[in-house]
Amino acid sequence: MNKKSHTIQFPQTDYESINLENNQNLSEYLTVENSPILFGCRTGICGTCLVVIEGDIPPPSAEEKELLEILAPKNPKARLACQIQLTNNIDIKICK
Ligand code: FES
Fold it and tell me: Does the global pTM surpass 0.90?
């Protein structure tokens, strides 16, 4: 049984770090109470949850990549938080 857990940190904010088990989807656990991230559709369509990720996580799907190229064409670390499965410790910053 793999119960490995990872830590999500929100640098430069007052939000406390969150521990989640391996392969958890961020959109199921992050809320306006426990994170600075706002979600809209939670299905990778609206772009509300655009963030910058520091850490090693699986690359975006073709659909996510398509939207990222429109929303943050010059930022290779930009991701849609709702599409992220946690496979490592990460830092999340709001994409400005
Ligand atoms: S919440 Fe809509 S793309 Fe993530």
Answer: yes
- Identify the pLDDT of residue 70: 97
- Indicate the CATH number for domain 5-94: 3.10.20.30
> Which own/partner pairs from 8-16 qualify as long-range (CB within 8 Å, at least 24 positions apart)?
8/35, 8/86, 8/89, 8/90, 8/91, 8/92, 9/89, 9/90, 9/91, 9/92, 10/35, 10/36, 10/91, 10/92, 10/93, 11/91, 11/93, 12/93
- Ligand 1 probe mutation, 29, 49, 67, 94, most atoms within 8 A of CB: 49
Indicate if the pLDDT at residue 18 is higher than 60: yes
Q: Is 96's pLDDT higher than 80?
A: no
Ligand 1 proximity of 38 Cβ (cutoff 6 Å) = no
Residue 3 tokens, joined: 């119960």
